[in-house]
Amino acid sequence: MRYKDTMPDPPVVAVRDLKQHAGETVTVRGWLYNRRSSKKLHFLQVRDGTGIVQAVAGIDDVGPELFEVASRLDREAAIVVQGSVSTDERAPGGVELHVQSVECVAPAQDYPLGKKDHGPDFLLGHRHLWLRSRRPTAVLRVRDTVIRAIRDFFHRRGFVNVDAPILTPAACEGTTTLFEVDYFDLGKAYLTQSGQLYMEAAAMALGKVYCFGPTFRAEKSKTRRHLTEFWMVEPEEAWATLDDVMDLAEAFLCAIVERVLEENRADLETLERDPAPLEKIQAPFPRITYDEAAAILKEKAGFEYGSDLGAPDETALSAKYERPLMIHRWPHEVKAFYMKRDPKNDKLALGVDVIAPEGFGEIIGGGERASSLEFLERQLREQELPEEAFGWYLDLRRYGSVPHGGFGLGLERTVAWICGLKHLREAIPFPRMLTRIYP
Ligand code: 4AD
Ligand code: MG
Q1: 187-201 pLDDT, tens per residue?
Q2: pLDDT digit string (tens) for 369-414?
Q3: Nearest Cα residue to 209 out of 239, 231, 230, 229
Q4: Cα(144)–Cα(140) distance, rounded to whole angstroms?
């Protein structure tokens, strides 16, 4: 037996599909989102995960007994409502339900989230319940679309999805943000900061590959733009140069934004996100060098040539453009050990950062990788990275090394930008931050 077999007629219809059932009598299963009542009428907002519908229960239609049941329903009580669907252009979703019967399946006494404004700490501590509210569900639907757009984009272009390990023997993005784990008799292991090094191996096997999974950084600062656990998608391509990497990133971002505009207009509206800036996300994107960026920032007090860009620098730069900004050719000191040097200037690494418009900061980091064995051996020594842990990585340069490159896109940064969220914590179902691991 399935739960649905226990359901009486009329058939269960998702709120999203009610419009196609105008004039019919249906069953809606869900939770009470809200209620307004007068002496003879209840207006029940019923949500089922696909949408919210207003169900009108009149005492004359349902009888005094059911009317009394309805008047005792708590917010978020699980309910089953039966009624006829009528189109009403004024109603959200364009339909209303005229209730014939209502059953309380499970109460939700003293549901802790009220209609009043709660502070972020309270909401985050109740994230498991907060997820039921309008804003979080809209964000989660956009996130789902972004994930599908990502997979479809790479699949259409012939990239093979290869999963990178989560437990790793060494750092990829600097040793200061590593999460350590005791690994049996083998000593320390680390939660992955990036699957890139493994994608380089996979690219030499399959040509075009990507991984897409959780990554971890022990970020010890509290910022709006950092999580300790976040999702990253990382394409890697054999024979690709820095320019190829930038072309790929540009087409990729356009495809993601286009897909959200196609599928999630209603969610963007719920989030009060103006779609106009997103409609401007079209190729080509501006591409400037780090030197050019530094010259722009020089007018701003405090920026020192050679340093990494801080969030305020990124915001100042992005304000000049309506499209994502690509900054390439960085002082090698601020970039990772694996980056190829510019053959025209050994001080510069062939890396690229992509900065989202409207002050949402860096969403992509990547570039062309060093393909020379001698160069990488020197880099490991200079940066005091353990050569034994990187033996396999150096093998990639010993056996058929070719130019290659790729990038990593932060999923939460991208969702935050598209949804217009000020803080990354809203862009992931259960955020992990310096001061938060519950729920
Ligand atoms: O710029 P990052 O550190 O680049 C890499 O990890 C490369 N190995 C990727 C590659 O070339 N395959 O990180 C890439 C992106 C950033 O641009 C940002 O969007 C996101 O990952 N990111 C974070 N997102 C949330 N919280 C954090 N602590 C993040 N750190 C990086
Ligand atoms: Mg970066």
Answers
A1: 999 999 999 999 999
A2: 999 999 999 999 999 998 888 999 999 999 999 999 999 999 999 9
A3: 239
A4: 6
Residue nearest (by alpha carbon) to ligand 1 atom 24: 410
Report, as an integer, the average pLDDT of 166-177.
Answer: 90
Q: To 5 degrees, how large is the angle CA 38–CA 14–CA 7? A: 85
Pocket lining: 235 vs ligand 1, CB cutoff 6 Å: no
Helix then strand then coil, % of the chain, to nearest 5: 35, 30, 35
**Cα separation values, 275 from 48, 185, 288, 354, Å:** 26, 54, 26, 20
232 lines ligand 1 (CB under 6 A): yes
Q: CA–CA separation, 276 vs 259, rounded Å?
A: 15
CA 56 – ligand 1 centroid, Å: 49
Mutation choice for ligand 1 from 150, 190, 230, CB with most ligand atoms inside 8 A: 230
DSSP sequence for 221-283: S--TT--SEEEEEEEEEET--HHHHHHHHHHHHHHHHHHHHHH-HHHHHHTT--SHHHHT--S
Whose alpha carbon is nearest atom 21 of ligand 1?
A: 410
Residue 5 is predicted with a pLDDT of: 62
Helix (H) or strand (E) holding 112: none
Structural domains of the chain, ranges and CATH numbers in brackets: 3-106 (2.40.50.140), 125-427 (3.30.930.10)
Could you report the per-residue pLDDT of 341-374, keeping only the tens digit for each?
999 999 999 999 999 999 999 999 999 999 999 9
Instruction: Determine the Cα–Cα distance for residues 28 and 105; give it in Å rounded to an integer.
Output: 12
* Distance in angstroms (rounded) separating the CA atoms of residues 300 and 294: 10
The reported pLDDT for the residue numbered 4 is 60
414, 281 Cβ separation under 8 angstroms: no
- Alpha carbon distance 138, 132 (integer Å): 10
Query: Distance between CA atoms of 73 and 389, rounded to whole angstroms?
Result: 60
| Ligand 1 touching residue 227 (CB < 6 A) | yes
196 lines ligand 1 (CB under 6 A): yes
| Mean confidence (pLDDT) of the chain | 95
C-alpha to C-alpha distances, 439 to 75, 108, 127, 427, 435, nearest whole angstrom: 21, 19, 7, 16, 12
Query: Residue 23's pLDDT is what?
Result: 96
